[in-house]
DNA sequence: AGCACGCCGACT
DNA sequence: GTCGGCGTGCTC
């Protein structure tokens, strides 16, 4: 028999495919497109995705190698999944292998195949185990708006993108669940994908889903899972056994052959953007995938991204408003602004805030203080000579961590003991400047010695599973005052919480990043939404949100005071349009890093010095805001266009030219960057 | 990107 | 005499 040649995509930055020989034999079934093959590559062995099977090849006979094995145990990935990877590869300007291969569970990629047969048997057990442990619950009645949202989404057929816009407590989750229920009931094998920003912070949602759909298999997909477990859940999605798939951004690249609905909760959340490797937007890929499959996609948020908001204003997305709070007695919290120029804080707390906390303590209610800065103090300083605790490897301060007596760089991980005296002049009186969550905790405990003060941040929840335990402590009511970073803003309903305070959120107002205020608004709205979610207590006052700021007249805080997302978003959009910024134009970023900043800048200058392209703006190279991280200097070059296709076409050509430049600079391009 | 090969400087 | 620095070249 004639040999067969397989065209295979591999996880390598080389922008081409590789042909391998496959020897036919009566024992081995013919390989198929979409199957995974194990091949020799250079001196390594790798797993690749079969993209074509043919009887000929252009590769010279002395170069071609043979396939080591084909993973017949894993059913082939279908053409639509491959098309998704191909789209992402083209759009983000990377080879398809760099998209497709990392999207597969590791156990399918390692040279020694794990026993898939055993795992497939395990799948059935997994489903049963989950069924035993839940108590089924029935769906609550929907209010008029929720009902209409479910009706609208389920009445149309074909591709339709929806923006489900509703404040915290308006019952978006219930719309997700009942929409999912209808789609699942409609077809024997249908699957629903639900994306959440961070799965570890939403155990409640997973619980709800399992209770509401007791007969159905639920798969979860996120980066915190063990490889064996990951394989099981991925396979259950891939084989169609899992009907509901709950996952983080990486789940958008999973194989879902019977997908009928995609839901993206908190669609504005920055964690939908992958920030390393293939820098994809799970939200954008979700919309593309829904379009490809001709199915609805629901983007839910109280504070939609300006991209999504603009789509809905332009009529490209269908807007569904939830304005009533679904929980009967729940009312919006009262937002008050405290001017810290007039009321000077001590220990970071104004007198008004301290009184508000005291009132909650007396009533046995909880308070939440939001301070987005972990550690004790962001820097220490010598008054005598001006020395500051700077990281020698990064353009950043070493943060003081008092509990473990360390100075720590939050960017490169460097740590050292807190010096007893100033390293340059010997002064023993070093000052902690500024305030992190640890210092706030210390101050609060001093003011309220009897109160149970509790801190939740990346430091207090470093151990696996400890975040969930920490949240449980708060839910149980074992906490009076909760201090937290952005970790506490997401997902959790605190039933006894009636006071939320934001300390010192001002820095984002003047950030270089034009998206900083959009993010701050979303974050404050979200954290404000933690208060009083279970409804008003008998005879109680509405929950309160206090913002301590030096800029009490800033429009962002005024919008927040009036719960006016729409006004805020419309104003920002107006500004963005005037200034020709996203979402009205499209951007790509060329980043370069080298030992010396000058080397990186020079590379970017050379890159910028290309033939002019109509409709493309190439800006000047600039050092990144945080120039040096871990002894590497970084610079970037922004490319803009008002036409997405024009930008794409330019990038394709440009990157080919850049690859030809002989350089030691490490560089890469990011499409639709969100952190500038 | 890995991973080799290859040709020049300081070590047991 | 070797270990190892990173320049250059290749991966079906």
Automatic annotation (TrEMBL):
Zn(2+) 2 binds at residues 391, 394, 409, 412. Zn(2+) 1 binds at residues 382, 385, 422, 425. Binds 2 zinc ions per subunit. One of its GO terms (molecular function) is zinc ion binding. It comes from the Bacteria. Gene3D superfamilies: P-loop containing nucleotide triphosphate hydrolases, PriA, 3(prime) DNA-binding domain. Residues 153-322 form the Helicase ATP-binding domain. The keyword Isomerase applies. One of its GO terms (biological process) is DNA recombination. Belongs to the helicase family. PriA subfamily. This is Replication restart protein PriA. The lineage of its organism: Bacteria, Pseudomonadati, Pseudomonadota, Betaproteobacteria, Burkholderiales. The gene is priA.
